[in-house]
Amino acid sequence: MKPIVEIKDLSFSYNNGNSVLNGINLQVGEGESLAILGMNGSGKSTLLKIIDGLIFPQKGEVIVFEKTISEKCLEEKEFRFMFRKEVALLFQNSEYQLLCENVKEELSFTLFQLGAKVSEIEKRVNEVASFFEIDNLLDKSPHNLSEGEKKRIAFASLLPQNPSLLLLDEPTSHLDPKNVKFIKNLIMKLNESGKTIVFATHELELAKEIAKRVIVIGKDHSIKREGSPLQILEDAHFLEEENLI
Ligand SMILES: Nc1ncnc2c1ncn2[C@@H]1O[C@H](COP(=O)(O)OP(=O)(O)OP(=O)(O)O)[C@@H](O)[C@H]1O
Ligand SMILES: [Mg+2]
């Protein structure tokens, strides 16, 4: 399997403080579905933001689509366009993701930034809105929605540009059981259609059902375990030690 993401000896700290990620080595193959588990504060969201090129490690290397991600390479227009089209991050906190005046603009935002034609934007936004059954929310301000609605809108807004790598931070948080099922089925379908999925979650059931591989980031901010969901999720003693049950 060709790696789409390759992380080599990555360490990261915010504002020169304590390490939040420590000596991370990881490869994600094309079409894989990888779950990142770990207690609160272990560094899961930070890792997803680094893969998305929003923040950059002090040490080590992150290679996405065969290119080392840096502020400089994201300044190159051609690469930035390709990267922003192909890689989509669902934020843990939807407030940081939903910045437009209304939901329709939110869904149109990335395609608009990528210079797509208005007719294409309309078509894709309507397709996604109808799939998510959010047509009735299109004119609303994202800030006046419920937390669960925000999460669904934030997820829907990743799809119009048809990205091939989805980074999903707590994709089912705030959702009611029916919407959890909807998002779970959607992630599985996206993965079956060839998209690469990397997601952080506290829901062990979600990892068990939709991940082909699991990593656990430990208290020391390094990868403590890596393996199949079955291998990792059956070890109750280990899960307890890492605050996962
Ligand atoms: N912008 C920031 N500035 C400074 N420190 C931060 C910032 N964001 C996160 N941190 C710190 O980095 C550490 C890792 O945070 P991160 O959000 O990556 O953890 P997480 O594993 O996603 O946790 P959770 O399960 O609560 O979502 C935490 O100790 C947190 O306090
Ligand atoms: Mg997090």
Structural write-up:
- The chain is of the alpha/beta class and 245 residues long.
- The protein has a single domain (3-241), classed as Rossmann fold (3-Layer(aba) Sandwich).
- It contains 10 helices and 10 strands.
- The chain has helices at 44-51, 71-75, 77-86, 103-113, 118-132, 147-156, 177-192, 204-210, 229-233, 236-241, and strands spanning 3-13, 19-29, 33-38, 59-64, 67-68, 87-90, 165-169, 196-200, 213-217, 223-227.
- The strands form 2 sheets. Strands 6-7-8-3-9-10 form a 6-stranded mixed beta sheet, sandwiched between helices. Strands 2-1-4-5 form a 4-stranded antiparallel beta sheet, with helices on one face.
- α7 links the parallel β7 and β8.
- The longest helix is centred in the C-terminal third of the chain and has 16 residues, at 177-192.
- The two termini are 32 Å apart.
- The mean pLDDT is 96.
- The structure holds adenosine-5'-triphosphate and magnesium ion.
- Residues 44-45, 92, 169, 200 line the site of magnesium ion.
